[in-house]
Amino acid sequence: MACSALSVTWIRSLSVTGKDGEQGKEIRGEFPFSPHMADQGAARLTDSSRVVGSFNIDSIDPSRVALTDGVAPHEGLRLDMALNLLAQAGWLPPANLVPDTQAWLQAVIDGLCDVSSRDALTGLANRRQFEAAIAREVDRVARIGEPAMLLVADIDHFKKVNDTWGHAAGDEVIKSVAACLQDCVRPMDLVARVGGEEFAIILPNCPPAFGETVAERIRQKVANKSVAIMGGEQLMVTVSIGGAFAPQWVRSSALFWGERADRQLYRAKAEGRNRTCLEPATTTVVSAEEKGMLFGSFGQFDPISDSGADPSVPKTTE
């Protein structure tokens, strides 16, 4: 028996219909199936009263399997809370998508991913997204050797702002500083709020002069911008900024890079605040922990000194 003009839909099962090539009768079969399953299957083909054969399913292209009208792809899913969360965040589905379609459901998932990676107050990247981004950047710098800088900024005397003017005023200050940071960087840079009043900026492909320029631009922009709070008051705040370059060609970690930048931030605070302190790019310090990570596969020996090479000869890289 041969079948022709087959059509396939997916509700809770795969339905196969066609014509019996020998007798011209309409035949149909149905069995449980999901277009995301890779298993092969077979349908029993019947006419109105008897089984007339079977149809083997060797493969299904999921992109060609349509969702039957009237059956929602998210049937059984509890989406009310997710949709309320997205609405609260100001998310709107694309206007060209029909609700309850697979494309609509994918848009909801994408919206949840975006909301979960952003700080609710400022709209900047949150700590989760920052940690993923800095891990990727450390790996990229180690492989390619391209310079990258990490800046950390902290609002000066922020506790005094909260104690004097209240937390609502503190929120306005945080949002103002976040906007200044975002205005001073390139589209390729990542600005994140990583703590209460602390921010971090990843600057990929960052020459030394550019990193210094960006840090100072941020400091000046924040210092020169007034923040309007309730009651018509205007507040002026400043930030302290520390920065460090990721060690090039070194198998380092985000933790060590962050510690370097934090040390420069502490120095900026100790020297009077409202200033930038950056680790010199020409003297990249490699800690003992980083050396252990880099040369861990060699055991306890130094690959240069233990090779018999003259230690007075400068080490070179290719």
Give your account of this protein's structure:
This protein has 318 residues and is of the alpha+beta class. The chain contains eight helices and 13 strands. It has helices at residues 80-88, 102-116, 127-144, 158-165, 167-183, 208-224, 254-270, 288-294; strands spanning 3-10, 13-20, 26-32, 41-46, 51-57, 66-67, 149-155, 190-193, 198-203, 226-228, 234-236, 239-245, 276-278. Strands 8-9-7-12-13 form a five-stranded mixed sheet, sandwiched between helices. Helix 1 crosses helix 2 and helix 4 (158-165) crosses helix 5 (167-183). The chain is globular and about 60 Å long.
Blueprint (SSEs and pairs):
Layout (H helix, E strand, L loop, with lengths): L2 E8 L2 E8 L5 E7 L8 E6 L4 E7 L8 E2 L12 H9 L13 H15 L10 H18 L4 E7 L2 H8 L1 H17 L6 E4 L4 E6 L4 H17 L1 E3 L5 E3 L2 E7 L8 H17 L5 E3 L9 H7 L24
Parallel strand pairs: 1-6, 12-13
Antiparallel strand pairs: 1-2, 2-3, 4-5, 7-9, 7-12, 8-9, 10-11
Helix pairs in contact: 1-2, 4-5
